[in-house]
Amino acid sequence: MATGHTAAHAYADPAKDFSACVRANGVQDFPDVTISGGTLQLGGGVDPFSDRLRTAVKSCEHLLPKGTALPKGTALPPVRRRPSRLRRPR
Known about the structure:
There is one protein chain. Helix content is 31%, strand content 7%. With 90 residues, the protein is mainly alpha-helical. The protein has a domain at 9-63. It has a two-stranded antiparallel ribbon with strand order 1-2. It starts with a helix and ends in a 30-residue tail after the last helix.
């Protein structure tokens, strides 16, 4: 027969625990996530560039199964520099 600790751990949902932890760490509108193919699926409405989210994820990633990959945010486009408008000598 399983002990209370083992039984509770066997039924734990790491994705829900992670989501609750992120919300408790300052991202109140963080949705419930799923884990699919070893990768955390965030869904829409999450700004992966938010400093608040990044901080919360660091605080909570220990709740995810070992080897779970965090999704990669899409790279921001490079900043375009305007061409220098130097006046040519006349």
